[in-house]
Design brief:
Blueprint: E1 3-7, H1 15-29, E2 35-40, H2 46-53, E3 58-61, H3 68-72, H4 76-82, E4 85-89, H5 97-107, E5 112-118, H6 125-131
Parallel strand pairs: 1-2, 2-5, 3-4, 4-5
Length: about 130
């Protein structure tokens, strides 16, 4: 099962980041934390949080429409070979990519992903729950 968290900061920058990071790290290390989805409003620190807290993960931004098709073209085997552990930032810009990540999850027990995106534009919680059994 994945950890879905709506990310909205309280007072000042990084206040909630510091409180949330230990929970994310603990969940990501568990067998139920292979896919984590972090959503929230724009400019709330989602990317900063996961890049700082998960520096060992490859960082892939889906913001650039020129490179987005390259990621969409990868098979599950290619994902596992090239990006077995990755942060996929701005995932709402490539909703079809969730299908690929689901396939990697289903086929390879060692794959781990963190998906970030804007609130209301990311895959629904039902979709993610289905993919993260």
């Amino acid at each position: 099962m994945s950890l879905m968290h709506d990310f909205t900061p309280k007072k000042g920058p990084n206040v909630k980041n510091r409180a949330l990071l230990p929970d994310l790290k603990q969940k990501s290390a568990s067998k139920f934390g292979r896919i984590i989805v972090l959503t929230g409003a724009r400019q709330t620190g989602k990317t900063t949080l996961v890049r700082a807290g998960f520096a060992e993960y490859a960082y892939l931004s889906l913001e650039d429409p020129v490179v987005r098709p390259d990621f969409l073209a990868l098979s599950a085997a290619q994902w596992r070979q090239q990006y077995p552990v990755a942060i996929l930032d701005e995932v709402q810009k490539a909703p079809r990519l969730v299908e690929s990540i689901k396939a990697v999850y289903d086929l390879y027990a060692d794959a781990r992903y963190i998906l970030t995106g804007r609130l209301g534009r990311c895959p629904s919680s039902a979709t993610v729950r289905r993919y993260s059994r």
